[in-house]
Write a structure and sequence with these properties.
Elements (H helix, E strand, L loop, with lengths): L21 H54 L3 H6 L3 H6 L2 H10 L3 E6 L8 E8 L4 E10 L6 E6 L1
Antiparallel strand pairs: 1-2, 2-3, 3-4
């Protein structure tokens, strides 16, 4: 038969609850919480930074594309297609027939090279070579359409 359990007045095995490791567990928990907070905030910051960088790259790519399309249309004599690349303020300044007449009267473009878009000023340099042999560097001024979000040619200097 087993021995009866100890009765009143028996001393407990420990005088006080054990405290060994309590402080290290507290600091370990606080450190893990701080790391989780850092990852959450840092991850959000990295996501915002990534979004900003990708939107700048998209604007630059779109600016080069629309500038190339504009000059391709001009060099092919497709003045109506070039006119379609213009922003609304440029279209208000000059009608399609006026633009087509003016573009047809200008020297014919033999070749062109589109440079890198300056995303701060929304301009892109284009080196143009004419059929007669002359060369010129032009600055294309870009504007983002508020409705579609796409880039448009808004002038050439």
């Amino acid at each position: 038969m087993p021995a009866p359990p100890p009765g009143p007045g028996v001393a407990p095995p420990f005088a006080a609850p054990p405290t060994e490791g309590r402080r290290s567990r507290l600091w370990l928990g606080l450190g893990a919480g701080a790391l989780a907070l850092l990852l959450c905030c840092g991850g959000g910051g990295a996501a915002v930074f990534g979004l900003l960088v990708s939107s700048v790259q998209a604007a630059a790519e779109q600016g080069r594309t629309v500038s190339g399309d504009y000059y391709r249309a001009l060099s092919n004599g497709e003045y109506g297609r070039a006119y379609d690349q213009l922003c609304e303020p440029a279209k208000r300044r000059e009608s399609r027939p006026e633009f087509e007449r003016r573009a047809a009267a200008e020297p014919q473009i033999a070749s062109y090279r589109v440079g890198e878009v300056d995303t701060r000023t929304l301009t892109v340099p284009v080196d143009v070579t004419y059929v007669g042999g002359g060369q010129e560097r032009q600055q294309v001024v870009l504007k983002q359409d508020q409705e579609t979000g796409s880039m448009e040619v808004c002038g050439v200097n």
